[in-house]
Structures are given as C-alpha cells and as structure tokens.
Amino acid sequence: MSGAARVGRRRVFARHFKRATDGLEPGYATYLSFSPRGNLLIRYRDEPNLTRLDGYASESIPGPPVTGNLPQAFRIYESVTGQLWTLDPEGVQWRDGEVWQKAVVPEIRDDMRMEARRLARPIPLLPAEHGRLFVLLSDRLLKFDALTRQTYV
C-alpha cells in the first residue's frame, strides 16, 4: 500500500512492503502474475516456493522442480479452476493436486532452442480449463492436453 503526503513543494510517498512475517517468501520476486480467479502469484528468483495472495491471506505453495541451471526462470499461470502451469525448457509443467507433473513438448523445446530471447521474453501460456493449455509459439498456436500429453494445432 502506498499513500502520498506533501512536504513543502514535493510529494513524498510512504510505502508499506509486505515481509516474510506477512506470509511472503524472503527474497527477490522475479514474476508477478494475476490469475482469472483474482489471485496474485509471486515467483522468486532464489526460493523454491511460490506465494498466492487472494486479497485476504497469503499461501506458500511448493514450486515446480527446477530443470537444468535455470533458477525459477518462468512465470506461473493459474487457470480458472485453480490449476497452476509454467514453462519448462523441454515443455510444460503443471500442478496436479499436490504434485508437479512435466511433459516434454517438442514444439516448445524447439522454439526455446531457436529463439535466443526466450529467457527474456518467454512463450506466452493461457490455461483454458482443467488439464488444457494454449501455447503461443513464434509461428503458431498450440493446444496442449495434459491427460493425453498431446498437442493440437
């Protein structure tokens, strides 16, 4: 929260930042994502957990396993059903209950390898419904089905 006050001719902003005692993980936040459910998801650079803020309380959630030497490199997305999704250098990961699942998606893997800027500008994801995800690649839109682990153009 922030508020503004006048001191002479200057406007001074007082900011209140949440801390670990408020339920947030200590450390540097790399991504903030708003979900269709109205939640704010926070991913940290050096922390394995995520934080979900719903406006009233915060919840710490175990993050996906880190692949390779990329420390918590990708944004977390939440579907309208509450399912969490993220990119992986080889495909996608999603949270199924309390466990993170992973699927190798050749189209994503190939796009990540061809596009050097993908760490700075990751592939956009759009969770559709439970177990389904849209992926916007450089040259096409894919639909991924987590149940069959197949993609459709």
Overview of the structural elements:
The radius of gyration is 18 Å and the shape is globular. The model is unreliable at about 1-5 and about 10-15 (pLDDT under 50). Strand 4 (about 40-45) and strand 5 (about 50-55) form a beta hairpin. A four-stranded antiparallel beta sheet has the order 3-4-5-6, with no helix packed on it. Strands 7-8-9-10 form a four-stranded antiparallel beta sheet. It has one helix at about 105-115; strands at about 1-5, 10-15, 30-35, 40-45, 50-55, 60, 75-80, 85-90, 90-95, 100-105, 125, 130-135, 140-145, 150. With about 150 residues, the chain is mainly beta. The protein is built from one helix and 14 strands, in the order ββββββββββαββββ.
Helix-strand blueprint:
Layout: E1 2-7, E2 10-15, E3 29-34, E4 40-44, E5 49-53, E6 58-62, E7 76-78, E8 84-88, E9 91-96, E10 99-104, H1 106-114, E11 125-127, E12 132-136, E13 141-145, E14 150-152
Antiparallel strand pairs: 1-2, 3-4, 4-5, 5-6, 7-8, 8-9, 9-10, 11-12, 12-13, 13-14
